[in-house]
Design the sequence.
């Protein structure tokens, strides 16, 4: 989810955090009030800041989660996912997308557009 959609999808983010807690994830950091904010990354030569939606740990592995919900700016979302996927590969993290009913088609089309078919989807 991009920063412009953060307020619009705050409830979905809260549901995703509850779902991850039930699955046994710990040390959850989220881009939401009441939680510690994950580390942010600033895009070079611009003012665009990339913040993962949720970062959590399970069984010694660090996981990065991003909500995949319909967006007005899909190109910005695609570049965020590409960056988070690359970061995950470099640091041996796990990168997963969380999506909800009504957003599956958008998510699958976006993943195919950027050729990230190896990403795991969590469907709420």
Sequence:
């Amino acid at each position: 989810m991009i920063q412009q959609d953060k307020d619009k999808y705050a409830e979905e983010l809260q549901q995703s955090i509850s779902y991850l807690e039930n699955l046994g994830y710990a040390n959850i950091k989220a881009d939401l009030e009441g939680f510690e904010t994950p580390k942010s990354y600033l895009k070079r030569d611009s003012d665009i800041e990339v913040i993962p939606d949720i970062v959590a740990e399970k069984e010694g592995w660090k996981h990065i989660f991003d909500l995949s919900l319909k967006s007005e700016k899909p190109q910005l979302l695609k570049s965020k996912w590409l960056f988070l996927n690359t970061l995950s590969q470099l640091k041996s993290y796990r990168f997963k997308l969380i999506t909800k009913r009504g957003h599956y088609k958008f998510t699958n089309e976006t993943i195919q557009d950027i050729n990230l078919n190896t990403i795991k989807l969590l469907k709420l």
